[in-house]
Amino acid sequence: MPEEAQQEKPAPKTVHKGRIHLIDELRGFALLFMVCYHTFYTVGYFFDWQWGRDIIHILYPIGPYFAGIFIVISGIASNLSHSNIDRGARLFFIAYIVTLVSFFAVGEQSAIRFGILHMLSICMMLYGLLSGILKVIPLWIGFSLNVILFVLTLPVTTGSIEIPFLWEMKLPSEWYMTDFLYPLGFINSEFTSGDFFPLLPWLFLFFAGTFFGRLAVNKKLPKFTYRSHVKPLAFIGRYSLLIYLLHQPVIFGVCTLVQMLLNMK
Q1: Which long-range contacts (CB under 8 A, 24 or more apart) does 125-133 make?
Q2: Calpha distance 34→127 (Å, rounded)
Q3: pLDDT in tens, 193-237
């Protein structure tokens, strides 16, 4: 090939892989659903407006799927964090501030004893402690095993583990007679929590995310995941914790204002 032709040949295009925008967007999408869900729940059950309860009955069956998206993404993101133990400890502190505030705001029956923030904080700390051991487990084995364990432990709060339609095993009833095993999902008839995400089964979904997240660390995710698609959702996803902490007080404040205005008529 002539030298001139070699000089004119364009350099191959490279794809810059930096922030994974799709993760932010999916997190924002899931959080947006959670905010809407909590809005209608507050409207229906705290302010006794029937249309809120009607919408909640429609949204209730799909709620866990959006929570699952949020939890898997949190697991993926843990691969990109420098200190999951510190991050988890800070979130644990914030979670119990939320618990304390909820006791004063909505009373003992509706207070958040062990919600999604509590669960995620413990998962982060556990991953930080166990990451050295977990890294020796092949990606797809660890991912598949955690998905299986998640499915097995889905009915833990009802007293059993099972393979749907094939096999079921009842768990010891003694585990459900205590007042302190509720973080694991072993709850008695007197237990209440305004938001409840026990470690079983959700811990396994989080850890499935940590295994899948290795693809992000090794830059092996598809190219489209690194592109920005819906910037407002990405913005919500990047500030998910702040939005999660602020949305409930805002919802209560707006509903209270609306109720006051309606009562003035």
Answers
A1: 125/84, 125/85, 125/88, 125/89, 125/92, 126/88, 126/203, 127/75, 127/78, 127/84, 127/88, 127/206, 127/207, 127/210, 128/83, 128/84, 128/85, 128/86, 128/87, 128/88, 129/85, 131/84, 131/210
A2: 25
A3: 999 999 999 999 999 999 999 998 888 888 888 888 899 999 999
